[in-house]
Design brief:
Shape: globular
Radius of gyration: 18 Å
Helix content: 40-55%
GO molecular function: calcium ion binding; calcium ion sensor activity
Order of helices and strands: HHHHHHHHHHHH
Number of strands: 0
Number of domains: 2
Distance between the termini: 28 Å
Structural class: mainly alpha
Largest sheet: none
Number of helices: 12
InterPro entries: EF-hand-dom_pair, EFCAB9
Oligomer: single chain
Length: 246
Amino acid sequence: MKVTEDFLLKLIYGENANGEPNLPGNASPRSAPKSPGGNPGYAAGGPDSQSLFVRLYEEECYSNVQKYFEKNLCTSAGVMSENQFLIFMRSLTDFRDHEIIEIFDIFDYDYVGGIAFDEYFLIVSMMTARLSASCTQFLYLHGKQIFEMVLEPGAQKLTYERFIRFGFVMGFSERHILNSLKDLDFDVFGFISLDEFMMYYFVVLDDFDAGRSGDEVGDKRAANPQARQGKKTSKNQQKDESCSIM
């Protein structure tokens, strides 16, 4: 899955008179340096001195994202309809239409028939995290919210089918997820708690942020079973490793 960079930048920074992203300092996103993993980093030396993910949570950029929702997507009921969501996600990503409808159903977890601003902002944040290689930061901020969103109503733990929904929205294949978790005691037939959800996805997202694809990870670990021994830390240690955006 690919994120449409120009559209995302317009959401976050707003548009200038020419319909282009109103980037700070008139910097070009195309000239931004790559992160260590090869993803567009938008970090020091990019359009400004902060990552795009950090900027999203600043008052001005948050307000831009909110204004776009209210002006272009919000119905009289205060939510984004399925049709509006389809158009929005076509602009933001290259997901196919049937995949977008699946994502709509995931985020319409309370069955109101629409996506409210909070869920819309989560999607914008996910795509920003993916573009700026800040996925572990997203997990640190919103992991509990995502876990509760994909839970079966009335359940306390996730099935595997529910677990991979987050990865699906982030654009990861099952193969990528399973290869990233190859050296952990991950049971596709078991039930997954919140702590386990955070631990497992920290590994998956850390691989992506560092530019390691699921296939590459699986191949390297097959050749070197000790390659990720250092990653087998406790749940609390892994939480501490997550970067705060502050």
